[in-house]
Amino acid sequence: MSTVHAGRMPRAAGRVGARPGTMNRTDTTAPTARPLETEYRPRVPIDAAGAIRYQRHGAHDPTFAVDGQVLWRASRTPEGIATLAIRADRDRIRAAAWGPGAEWALHQLPALCGGLDDPTGFDAARHPLIADVHHRNPGLRIGRTDLVFEALASAVIEQKVTGLQAFAAWRVLVTRFGERAPGPTPKPMFAPPSIDGWRHIPSWAWHRAGVEPPQARTIVETARRGATVVAAVTDAGAGEAVDRVLMSLRGIGIWTSAETRIRALGDPDAVSVADYHLAHEVGNALTGHRVDDDGMLELLEPWAGHRQRVIRLIYASGVREQRRGPRLHPEDHRDR
């Protein structure tokens, strides 16, 4: 079995000598607070860094930073904000954490790294490209944050816009309405707003960040019953049961639900149907030509239960559809 125990983290200010489960709480909100630390050894070598990097929202994400071989992530846990500094090797992951949510973040570390993702039953041999990429990337895993509302809010912001627009809006809103991350971060970092914080972002701030009114309204309305939504998603577990919960909310469709399932729950079968590029990329990789959403689902059906895993492997392959025209011109409603 995997083990989690106290360890020494490079670049950290100190250590708290207690194993997870019996960690001593410390005042991690103080500027000189010593971090809690842990070491996680997965049962088999995994690409933990790849799983963690998937949670990044663009190069300038205020919740994420890369400093040499250390990955930094700020989040708002159920126990408060936390900053994680993670040094991930294939067979050993060392982490230090600051803030009131530090203990929660360290206990959740194996899931974030993809250590709870189980590829049992996945048959890469069904397609030569997938077999080759899987052979070269046996440690590819799907991580999870267990932070449902954070994933849901970011997915709603990404609806019907380019990645550039979505990442810019996320950066503006989290920096303005989030909370400064504790610890010796390599740059100023911020944890996302609380559920109540998302609910109270004023309309002018959404407009200034470039978020269209329907998406802003969806986040605000969902935040009004955010705790109930999070509890219902958690109780639903995975798959279509989560879709039923999320898609019962106004403004949330199959794409947004899938993106939330992937980031928050690490769902290995989730497919972001209605994505602008995904069906084209899957079709090109598996058949050499474009397909629509129905065609993509048909191609992925042999891997039912592991369809997101196949999509990750396709992106890891480097195979990309050749662009046939100019880039989509972002529409900016702020000058209307």
What average pLDDT do the residues reach? 90
Q: Main β-sheet: number of strands, strand sense, barrel status?
A: 6 strands, antiparallel
The count of DSSP E runs of length 2 or more, i.e. the number of strands, is: 8
Can you tell me the overall shape? globular
Q: From the coordinates shown, what is the CATH architecture of the domain at 3-119?
A: 2-Layer Sandwich
Secondary-structure element pattern, one letter each: EEHEEEEHHHHEEHHHHHHHHH
Spatial extent as radius of gyration: 20 Å
Q: DSSP helix count?
A: 14
At the fold tier of CATH, the topology name of the domain at 3-119 is: TATA-Binding Protein
Structural class comes to alpha+beta
> Please, what is the oligomeric state?
single chain
**CA-to-CA gap between the ends?**
58 Å
Describe the model.
By secondary structure, the chain is of the alpha+beta class. The chain has a domain at about 5-120: TATA-Binding Protein, CATH 3.30.310. It is about 40% helix and about 10% strand. The protein has helices spanning about 50-55, 100-110, 130-135, 150-155, 165-175, 195-200, 205-210, 215-225, 225-235, 240-245, 255-265, 280-285, 295-300, 305-315, and strands spanning about 5, 35-40, 65, 70-75, 80-90, 95-100, 180, 190. The chain has a six-stranded antiparallel beta sheet. Strands 7-8 form a two-stranded antiparallel ribbon. The radius of gyration is 20 Å and the shape is globular.
